[in-house]
Specification:
1031 residues; elongated; 5 strands; mainly alpha
Amino acid sequence: MATPKPQRTPEEIEDIILRKIFLVNLKENPSSSDPRVVYLEMTAAEILSEGKSLLLSRDLMERVLIDRLSGEFPDSEPPFNYLIGCYKRAHEEIKKISNMKDRTMRSEMESAAKQAKKLAVSYARIHLGNPGLFSNGDLRDNKSLSSPLFPLLFAEVSNGVMLDGFGGNDFGSGVDCPPGFLDEFFKDSDFDTLDPILKGLYEDLRGSVLKVSVLGNFQQPLRALSYLVKLPVGAKSLVNHPWWIPKGVYLNGRVIEMTSILGPFFHVSALPDHTIFKSQPDVGQQCFSDASTRRAADLLSSFTTIKTLMNTLYTDLADVLLCLLRNPETRDSVLEYLAEVINKNASRAHLQVDPISCASSGMFVNLSAVMLRLAEPFLDANLTKRDKIDPTYVFNSNCLDLRGLTALHATSEEVAEWIDKVNPVKTDGSGLNRDGENGLRQMQEASTSGSTLNVKPTRSSGEKVKYPFICECFFMTARVLNLGLLKAFSDFKHLVQDISRSEDALSTLKAMQGQTPSAQLELEISRLEKEIELYSQEKLCYEAQILRDGVLIQRALSFYRLMVVWLVGLVGGFKMPLPSTCPMEFASMPEHFVDDAMELLIFASRIPKALDGVILDDFMNFIIMFMASPQFIKNPYLRAKMVEVLNCWMPRRSGSSATSTLFEGHQLSLEYLVRNLLKLYVDIEFTGSHTQFYDKFNIRHNIAELLEYLWQVPSHRNAWKQIAKEEEKGVYLNFLNFLINDSIYLLDESLNKILELKELEAEMSNTAEWERRPAQERQERTRLFHSQENIIRIDMKLANEDVSMLAFTSEQITAPFLLPEMVERVANMLNYFLLQLVGPQRKSLTLKDPEKYEFRPKELLKQIVRIYVHLARGDAKNIFPAAISSDGRSYNEQLFSAAADVLRRIGEDGTIIQDFIELGAKAKAAASEAMDAEAALGDIPDEFLDPIQYTLMKDPVILPSSRITLDRPVIQRHLLSDSTDPFNRSHLTAEMLIPNTELKARIEEFVRSQELKKHGEGSNMQSSKGAMLID
């Protein structure tokens, strides 16, 4: 019968378990075949000398562990790896112990194994905090130079998670983090112990994403960062890291991006960056090289991948910031970091951005997306939390530097004066006076509850106002969007223009190469082709990250809807008319708040479906209220941008039925839209810019397109007619004057350029002569030819638009055209156009392909004649024929019959032709009558003649400043374009003119006396002729 196996004592079992965990033996010649097991000879001798048994127990555990870590053993693992192994083996032993039947034994052994686990964690912490404490303690091997915690952290955050990144390293591959190790490592320890370890980890994480693009492995480091900041000790350590906000005299936006802990995470992007800071893998090269030859499905796949990866980045970065913001100990540090990033990158708003001193577009677009996520809680449909936004933040923020920004209307001096007036008490050194602060605190009373993160405005020790988080977040988001998303839109627009210019240049060079080949041209063509390929890759990167991200754009639109609703609240809400004076709270807000909203609307309107589901009514109200209000928004170009938005929304252009209701069923629109468009058309004449003369044509082109659409909407057409009646001598007359001015200039310029173009065409068609010219001269003349073509096309398009507007409005609105100060101007314009189109030089304007240049002489003639006829039909006083015939420059009676012949050939309506012929006959009769009247008057004294027109004055007026007398219609015509005295440039308006009654009486007496003299000579003049002369 076999001898029963002797029962082991609890002490022996504990010894076996602990020896397995720590891989040590206290007895020589151990039975274990594991080469990792170490015999602690000296420790064993010490234990024996103390009269203790050589069984490893809880009492000896720490002593044995220290000796094992401190000893020099061949082929032993590094201390940290060994301690991780101990923890892992203890974890495995606990699983085995759970199967023991003896409950007491099980409890005792579990306690021993758990103590071993705890000891392994504790010494791992000690070792990382003091690397030189144990032998073989070099933490960072030469290959990775990173903390040994690094791979464990990656293994932990990647456990069971599929990574989307491709092309990057999997930092946690081949490493298994024991369950619970990191949790135990970071808890139950003081900050001072963990802080240096965490700081090293943050530096390693930062380094792992430095110059990593969206196609690289950014997800593991970002998840690791997120894991650490969720630990209270981790959050505190991060914001106390010297690289949280780097310091130094050379600190700029790019330095913060590249050296701060969070900067490189925000740098991960698909957008192009300067060569020095270029990330890998190269997104443009990998996804979009030779895009023109790729299948559409491949491009779509790249777009989807990039958008998905970017949204993963945005979400994880937002979670990191949100976690830090929810922690009262770290919240202010986050706001300070964001403010520093914004303030140090203020020059990103410039047209030319220095990539060495400014952070990348990628960082700021990412930051834009993250800030919009943080703002989401107060972007609800009803914008219920907008009262938490305090306009005084602009002047008194402790974080953001907003004072240097251009304001909507107020100058910096006016703002300073206003603040002094509101807060007359001297400041206490905190930058804010005490009385003023009390006022601010009262204004902020509504903000003390309900903010997203429950941050209440409180007084700090420095006597500075604390604004609620919603307020801080609102202004920071506005600044970030200005420097980020909106700047990226601008960069994209310039990139598209660069591509267009390069393609035009390439086309020209290829044409030249076809005519006169040269090696130099071949090199230039090759360079341009490479440049276009690079530009195209960059363009597709922008499209992938921004244009294809409908959610990002819709979030931005929600934010700017809050912006415009909040701004309107500063002037009393959505109601017209506006207050008589602009409140300083509104006037002093940064101009870019509105500019960015308009730019976003323009950009989004051009992306299919980007506006679907967006509430546009508030934007529409805002635009109608302010586009013609220079006393609220000073910058005319900003107000002109509002018209550009409306242009994008015209139903025929937007392709969306939703936008038609904004024009045709919108109360403010029906009441004020036409009026304000006409007013802006006039205001834009003087923008104050050195390019104002050329700018106005582009702006008026947008207004004209919109007005033409509104004329077709009956309710708007009725409003237009009513304005023309009410403002006959006001804004409508000014509008008409500038419309005529532009028409004359544009058509004249176009026709002259056509003559120049024909000369160039003739030069180039004489092949023999052309080939003899130097190559450089031929290139210059060819470029000039293409330039002239573009100018003619643009000017002709604008001229057609203006003449068309004169034609359709004059059919139903004639009175303003026939006013004394306007009728001759209108007649002169029409006569000039008629002369150009049917006069002697018409044949010299013949082009091979007139449609290419938008030159449609037949259509133009039809419209000119219709304007003549419309005005003749509305001419109850029969003054139009005399105005036509009095034009000494262009009038010729034969032009009317010549035009009628052309009209018959091109199939114009017979009634129009007949009315036009009759008008020509009336003009001819008026010319004859005018000659008779002039003969009757004989020599007219100079003092009765207008000094500008040299015609007999009918209503002389004195100019108050220069004291010179002019005929009222003449000076009124001048004042329509220029509100100054033509003789000394002093300010002048029609109301300031002084009737010269004494001179008028003398003129009338002169006319009567000349009539009587003529009668006395047996003249057959009718008695009413004298009256007619001065009516």
